[in-house]
Protein: Ferredoxin--NADP reductase
Amino acid sequence: MTEQLELYDVTIIGGGPAGMYTAFYSGMRDLKTKLIEAKPELGGRMLIYPEKMIWDVGGMTPILCEKLIGQLEQQARTFDPTIVLGQQITGLSRQEDGTFILTAATGEKHHTRTIILAIGYGILTMQKLEIEGADRYEVTNLHYTVQELEVFRGKRVLISGGGNSAVDWANELEPIAEKVTIVHRRDQFGGHEKNVSIMRESSVDIRTPYAVTQLHSNGENIEQVTITHMETEETERIEVDAVIVNHGLKCDYGPLVEWGLEMKDELAVVNGKLETNIPGIFAAGDFINYDSKVRLIAGAFTDGALALNSAKLYIDPEAPKVAYVSSHNIRFKEKNKQLGLDDDNYRNV
Ligand SMILES: Cc1cc2nc3c(=O)[nH]c(=O)nc-3n(C[C@H](O)[C@H](O)[C@H](O)COP(=O)(O)OP(=O)(O)OC[C@H]3O[C@@H](n4cnc5c(N)ncnc54)[C@H](O)[C@@H]3O)c2cc1C
Structure:
């Protein structure tokens, strides 16, 4: 069966920042590369906050997250890796020749010499509002993320939740919505202190300790929400145009954690070369834990390069330990020409 499958040098599982940057770096090292993502689009956790400004990626002046995802994808495609979307990898088997066959939940198979796990905290899904039938409003005015702030302009918005994102959204929507109400089952909010105090001093209507207990609709849209006091059980109805629920994220690695990977605190154990305990399988990004791990987009990039270099040496122990820097890497000569640059002096660019 392996003869029918194209053999790749590296298969990266997970299309977040770690996976995308690793795909680029793998091209720099001249490896035949495949990137597989379970969701229908690349971006990983960054897809949760597309309208946020990102300030802490080196060399990037403040950039809208959505734009950074686009740029990461463009960079990932530099050396034309095969990118597979909508396949959650679940199965692994090692062949006699040491290569691996990966199986997706959809049944598709992938043949590879090495694997880089860049799966973050697994497949993310939003914790849903636990009210029967609530899912029917997901196509109208019940939201689990804020993809576009403008959607809420001039509206009466009720936010359910008390974490960082809930508080953030309340602050961001307050100047553009007609009214923002935040409902949380505890008096204390979990968001950053500064953001909580900005919210408390703003016009946001804070209802604690309350929970959303009933939705009232015209059949299509939620028009009112009943909130219930956690102690007195007293109820109140609030008129709304939109409801945003932020009850946290559910993460699931699926059957992948049964592959025999050594895990600690639900993260992969790796050594300094980002090797897992399974020879030929490396890991990068939020999925791994080591003493100095930086759980940021920038940290994911460094992990990606380290893991990929280890994969390269696994395939070819004689290869240089790291890729040639891009400023001197022959692989970019042609690419620079495509940018209209025909010598090595780009000072005037
Ligand atoms: C609200 C919020 C705001 C943040 N703000 C910032 C910020 O301002 N700056 C910053 O640097 N960082 C920020 N972060 C952190 C940053 O998003 C993460 O550190 C980063 O996304 C980790 O990248 P990753 O590629 O390791 O994992 P992820 O981004 O989680 O990507 C993992 C991908 O793997 C896929 N996957 C999982 N399992 C499988 C499987 N079995 N098969 C196929 N695909 C699979 C998932 O679908 C996902 O797309 C923020 C995080 C959050 C939640």
